Each structure stands twice: as C-alpha cells, then as structure tokens.
Amino acid sequence: MSSLSDFARRATELLGPRGFTCDPDLLEPWLTDWRGRYHGQALSLASPATSEEVAAFVKLCDKFDVAIVPQGGNSGMSGGATPDASGRSVLLSLRRMDRISSLDPASRQVVCEAGVILQTLHEAAQRHGLRFPLTLGGKGSATIGGLVSTNAGGTQVLRHGTMRAQVLGIEAVLADGQIFDSLTALKKDNRGFDLKQLLIGSEGTLGIVTAANLRLLPAIGDRVVAWCGVASIGDARRLLLHFEQALPDELEGFEVIPEHCLDAVLTHLPGSRSPLAKRYHWHALIELATKPAASAALRDEAEAALAEAMEAGILLDATIAANETQAEQFWQLRDSIAPAERAIGPAMQHDISVPVERMPDFIEIAIPDVEARFPGVTGVAFGHLGDGNVHFHVLAPGGATRGEWEESQGKVISRHVHDLVAEWGGSISAEHGIGQMKRDELGRLGDPVALSLMRSVKHALDPKGLLNPGKLVPLA
Asked: Is residue 452 part of a domain?
C-alpha cells in the first residue's frame, strides 16, 4: 500500500490537483459504462492536458506496475473503457485534451487531440466549408480518441468507410511511455509496417491515442432524406440495390428500422410521430448527398428513383423531408432506437455483420429461430443494411429483472446468436468493438491463428499487460 501511496503522491506532483484525483465522488460517474452493464473500481482518475503529460504518467505507471484504463467520452457499447472490480487500475481520461491543433482547408486535413468531441469537429469543419464524413447517434459525447481506438462506424460507412478510412496520421503513447508520432500524412509511404493501422481499433490495449490527423471532405451542396415503407427486409435490400444503381454517387446512408423499433421510439420520444400515415413491417431511411453544382437536380432524381421503385413493387410508400428540420427529425427517430429500447426493459444487444448480400436472409431466419428457442423474447434487427451490419437485439420477456436476466438467460442467448453469426461467416463485432463484453466469445469463436497473432502483438507492445487489461485480447 505504501508503494501505491508513493505512486499517488508522484502522480499528483506530475499532473497537479486538476490532473489527478483519488476522490471517490469524482471517480464514481466514470466507473460505469454507458449501458449500465459494467461497473468497476479504480485507484484514481488521471486527466493529463498534453501528450507529454500522458507519456510521463504512463512511465510512472510502468514504474509502479499500475494498470491503465483509457477513457474517452465513456459512450462505448462493449465495456471497453470500464475498469474491473479489483480497484488496482487508474482511469486515464483524455477529455482535457480537446484542442483542434490545425485545420487546413487546402489539404482538407485536420489535426486534433484525442478529447475533441465529434460534434465539435463537425462544427469546426463546417465553418471552413468542409465536413468530417463520420457521424453517429452519440456525436455529442463521443471523442476522437475513442472513435479511433474502436474503429467506429456510424451511418455513413456505406459511402465513406469506418474511422480507419478517415485517419491519415496518428499520435499515441506506448506502454513504456514513448510517443509514437505518425501525424504527418503521406500519400505514399513504403517504409515497412503501417503501425498506425495497428493502433486503430486496438481499444487502448496497444497504445493510448493522443491525437489524430483526419481527412475532411467538401461540404455537401444539398441532401435529400427519404423515409420509406416496405413489406419485408428482402424488399429493403432490393430498394438498396435500386438506389445503388440509380444514384450510386449520391447514396450516403441506408438504414432499416422494423415496425417494433419505430413503435418503441414513438412511445419514448415526446412529440414524435411516424413519417408515414400507414403502418409497415419495415422502414428504410435513405440519405442522398451531392456537391453544390448538382444540388438543383438531386430532389428530382430522388423522386424519380422512388417512383421507379414503387412501380417495380419494392416500395409501398415514401416521403421526402421537406426541409432540414424534418430531415433531422427523421434521423432522430433512427438515433433514438437504443434509448427507447433501454426504457422498455432488459435486452441483449448484438452488433453483428454478415456478408451484405446475405443479411436479409439472416434476419428472416435468425429472429424466428431465437424467438422459438427462447420463448417470450422478442428479436429485432435494425441499422446499416448497406454495409452488412445490423444491431440484432433480443428483448427480455415482460417482468424480467434488469441485471439478473442479462447474466442468466441473456448470456445463453448471446452465445446462440454468436454461433449463428459464425455459421453465416460473419463477425460478432461490426463496429462497437470487443471490450470486455465479447472478449471470451472472441476467444471461443475466433480463428486460432489470428488470436495467436493478436496475443503476440499485445505481448510485444505491452509485455506487462498494463494497458486496458481484460479487454479485446482473449486469454490463451
């Protein structure tokens, strides 16, 4: 204990009272994950203000063998930023490192620290006539460091790719306190391994992302957001293919929402209403975007594409947002599904992917399978149909106790869902990461060769296992 007291004294001297605290009241809000599934304990909370302070603090942790749990906006879905129950690790918050270091409109690049909020980045880019082409429901709390560390996805992956595709350069502090500086972006660089790609998506287990150089795109000239009603998930897929052929350069996002999810949102969200007058088993939310020079024709082209889909019998009804306010209301319905479901009761959330062309068949087979095998549950699937990633949720029977159900029947259900995904050649984590939630399942279902390589890399970069222990990398 004396060594830990010495550690705390040294850390306070290094970071100051604002940068280091052991106050339980100040730690408490950061000890539970966003979903409320995981709760841990920590020795302290460190909040460095610069990369150099992060490096010095990591060196101190290495000296005293203190484990580190990096944390961004604490909005992750897999418990990847929550400490374990031992109370022997420190939380490392990057939220004070919230500076946008440079934004160059000519090169369309922005360098920002790990604690920059996604929405803040969107607003900064917009002021320069640019945009950052990744967004998600938690944009008001998600940080750049967290998005890089989890290789986040979102609603624009169909056109622009995941976070990995947006990162041009990276700065990170390694387990021994060295600073890996690869922020300079080069179109061509053939000097061996692309080490920044190793750190992207590593969930803080190989290094702590402190800054990133990100690509920007020209601001859109106009967008069209349509809400469509279809009879089946198969018709939703056919509608997607229709738009990929009719407007391939303009198709920005394609989300599917089942009737059950829309009903949950309408109940949960005050003042909300369905965009369509009639009820439909499935809904599709389509976003089209174009450059300024082509803005005038976009709405006409969208209307024509919808009319053709209706004539072909794959679309039952549709409406186009009349203005930006209504477009945002459409997206709010989609983004409110998770909190609306959480208000209903316990659920097991599965962030899965299968080959894009097979997703409709998977949904039509997997939901009845799960509901028959576990009587009383309700299966729902929603999300990014265009990139083969849906959120496959299984809602508990009425009367189930939150916390108890997830730890009992819920775990059995998740194991079965993951088995189905593996049989279909898919992934048990499409965009939310592995964290602690899926670590053991990755160990059970992952390719043995890939798992061995992951463990080797982890040991090489973090031989003491001090960086985010118990996350992502399965035990041997």
From this structure: no
Tell which residue, 99, 143, 97, has the closest CA to residue 117.
143
Amino acid at 9: R
Q: How far apart are CA 251 and CA 245, in angstroms?
A: 10
Per-residue tokens: 446 = 């992952």
Res. 1: pLDDT tops 50: no
- Close Cβ partners of 255 (under 8 Å, ≥ 6 residues apart): 155, 284, 285, 334, 382, 383, 384, 385
Domain count, the chain: 4
CA-to-CA distance for 268 and 26, rounded, in angstroms? 31
Residue 291 half-sphere exposure toward CB, CA atoms < 13 A:
4
Per the rule left: phi > 0, alpha: psi between -120 and 50, beta: everything else, 468 is left
The least confident of 34-38, 329-333, 412-416 is: 34-38
Q: What is the pLDDT of residue 459?
A: 97
- Global pTM reads 0.91
User: Residue 136 has what DSSP assignment?
Assistant: -
CATH number for the domain that contains residue 312: 3.30.70.2190
Fill in the amino acid letter for 5. Answer: S
Same domain assignment for residues 266 and 233: yes
Domain with 381 in it: what CATH number?
A: 3.30.70.2740
In a domain, 15, yes or no: yes
- CA Rg value for the chain: 23
Domain containing 111 equals 100-218
How high is the pLDDT of residue 293? Answer: 67
Q: What DSSP element (H or E) covers 125?
A: helix 118-126
pLDDT band at 377 (very low <50, low <70, confident <90, very high): very high
What is the three-class DSSP state of 222? strand
